[in-house]
Write a structure and sequence with these properties.
With 134 residues, the chain is mainly beta. It is 10% helix and 35% strand. Bound molecules: copper (II) ion. Its cofactor is Cu(2+).
Length: 134
């Protein structure tokens, strides 16, 4: 009975996955030419919000990244403008299934050469299909 209860708990937690998607905040610029934090882990379905703390910046996915975006005052192709900007912008991307188990490298187009880069390591939420109950 106790084992059943913990299995049920695990299933309920897994089923709640999509509703538990969280938003990760990455600060852009401010005191330095950096993303803070620069490397994060996220699940498919999570969102990542980039917030410009100051400076002339944007954020763009690296060539070949499993999720393509270019954002500042909104995102290109999504009603916004990803051109480098010193406005107090923020922009949110959603980690899609296409990026599952991948690493999404990103950079600021103005300061990539100065090391203003980062990455999002993506993992999948628990797959219910993988559970077996005896
Ligand atoms: Cu920059």
């Amino acid at each position: 009975m106790r084992k059943s209860t913990s299995l049920l708990t695990a299933i309920l937690l897994a089923a709640a996955g999509p509703a538990c998607a969280i938003d990760h905040t990455i600060h852009v610029g401010g005191a330095g030419l950096v993303f803070t934090p620069s490397n994060i882990e996220a699940l498919v379905g999570d969102t990542v919000t980039f917030v410009n703390d100051g400076g002339f910046h944007n954020v763009a996915s690296d060539a070949g990244a499993p999720l393509a975006f270019r954002c500042a005052n909104g995102c290109d192709g999504n009603g916004g403008n990803g051109d480098i900007s010193n406005a107090a912008w923020s922009a949110t991307i959603t980690i899609s299934q296409a990026a599952a188990h991948g690493s999404i490298g990103f950079h600021c187009e103005a300061h990539q050469a100065s090391g203003m880069v980062g990455s999002i390591s993506v993992t999948n939420p628990v797959d219910l299909q993988s559970f077996s109950i005896d």
